[in-house]
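Deliverable D4.2, example record:
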Amino acid sequence: MAMFQHTLGIFVNPDRAWQGIRNEKQSFLRVYLSHVPLLALIPAICGYIGVTQVGWSIAGGSVIRLTPESALVLVVATYLAQLVTVYALGEYINWMSNTFGVAGDAKERHYGGTALAVYTAMPMMLAGVALLYPHLWLVVSIFVIAACYSIYLTYEGIPILMNIPPERGFIYASSVITVGLVLAVVVMVATVIVWSSGMGPVFIR
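Output generated by the structure prediction step:
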C-alpha cells in the first residue's frame, strides 16, 4: 500500500511524497527489494512484447521484429542492468552524504540514498509501457519526458529526503545526475560489447 501511495504521490505532490518517504525510515534493502525488481519488469515485459509481436518499420517499410530467443536475451540483460544501475546510484548517493553534511546515522543515510535512487528511477521504469508500441519517435519522446521528470525529482527530493539546505542540495543533486549519466553510458558501452560478442538481436520480417 505504501509503495502505491508514494508512487502516486511522486507524480501528484512530490514534496509531500518525499516527506513521507523520509519519515518511513525503512532499511535500504527493504525499500530496494520492494520496488525495483517489480518495477523493472515493466520495460522488460513491454519491450519483449513490442519487439516480438508488434514490431516497427523504418521509413514506411516492412515491419521488423526480433526473434523470441534474441529478444529474451536482451530483455534479461536490460532487466539486470536496471537492478544494478539503481543500486549503484543509491550507493553513490549514500557515499556522498558525508561530503554534503547529511545528518543522521549511517543506516538512515543509506536508506535515504537508496530511496532517492529508487523513486527517481520510477518515471523511467513506468515509461517502459511505451515499448509496447516501439515506434521510434513515440518511445524517444516519452523517455525524454520521463528523464526530465526524474531530474526534477532529484533536485526536488535531495534537500527534503537528505534534510540539507536547498543550495547544498542543488550541488548534491547535480553530482547525482552526473553519475546517473555516467552509469547510462556504461550500460550503453556494455550493450555494444555484448552485441559484438555475437549475442546481438536477430531480426525477422
